[in-house]
Amino acid sequence: MILPSLSYAKIAKVIFLKGTVFKVSPSDKSSQIKRGDLVDQGFKVKTQPKSVAKLRFTDGSSMVVGPSSELVIEKFPQKEAAVLSVIKGSIRAKAQKLPGEGDKEYHKRKMKMLIKTKNASMGVRGTDFHVLYNPE
To answer: How far apart are CA 114 and CA 72, in angstroms?
Structure first.
């Protein structure tokens, strides 16, 4: 019998932190994070009021999770679109374009993100954007 792996892919690093921020595992285990910590694929980042966290992803993209927000990093594969869910609050992100914009292969290699909320989804390619979602 093969047991499932309990390790997760480390895909983001906390590069700035203000206030109180938690990461919550898929099994709902919560721990407070600090600057320099790594966040795994499948985890939720949850900020308290007056708190923010800036994450740098393995592809060079960055994201600020605003106060009183919840973001789930559903998947962040190397060669496919990343999938992130905004449960509530706001994020500001800068998706990183991969090198080779002039190449014929550019569109195959360009970084893609899919941002989801309960009511909408948005596809993003190499740009700076802001999402604000209020579930109420």
So the answer is: 12
Under 8 Å CB-to-CB from 91, ≥6 apart: which residues? 63, 64, 65, 66, 69, 71, 84, 115, 130, 131
Q: pLDDT, tens digit, for every residue of 31-72? A: 999 999 999 999 999 999 999 999 998 888 889 999 999 999
Closest CA to 14 of 28, 33, 30: 33
Please tell me which of 16-20, 79-83, 94-98, 124-128 the model is most confident about, judged by mean pLDDT: 16-20
22-51: b (≥16 Cβ within 10 Å) or e = bbeeeeeeeeebeeebebbbbbbbbbeeeb
